[in-house]
Amino acid sequence: MEQLSDEDKEIKDKPADEDALAIPVGPMTRSRTKRLNETIGGLLMKSWKQEEFLG
Q1: What is the rounded distance in angstroms from the CA atom of residue 13 to the CA atom of residue 38?
Q2: Mean pLDDT for the stretch of residues 26-44
Q3: What is the CA radius of gyration of the chain?
Q4: How many helices (H) and strands (E) does the chain have?
Q5: 38 close to 20: Cβ distance less than 8 angstroms
Q6: How far apart are CA 55 and CA 32, in angstroms?
Q7: Model pTM?
Q8: Are 36 and 2 in contact (CB under 8 A)?
Q9: CA gap 43, 24 in Å, rounded
Q10: Among 6, 30, 43, 44, which one is most buried in terms of CB atoms within 10 A?
Q11: For residue 27, what pLDDT is reported?
């Protein structure tokens, strides 16, 4: 199993930002893209950890 980096641990422990998952009204800026990627990554990490715990 691969070890989590410090950045991955921070993303995993941070709750999902509901605003980051909302569809933006304006253009998709770099900061919005980064925040969306971090949120999705955090949700995936959380999902994988729950799957490992349950399975």
Answers
A1: 12
A2: 91
A3: 13
A4: 3, 0
A5: yes
A6: 34
A7: 0.57
A8: no
A9: 19
A10: 43
A11: 92
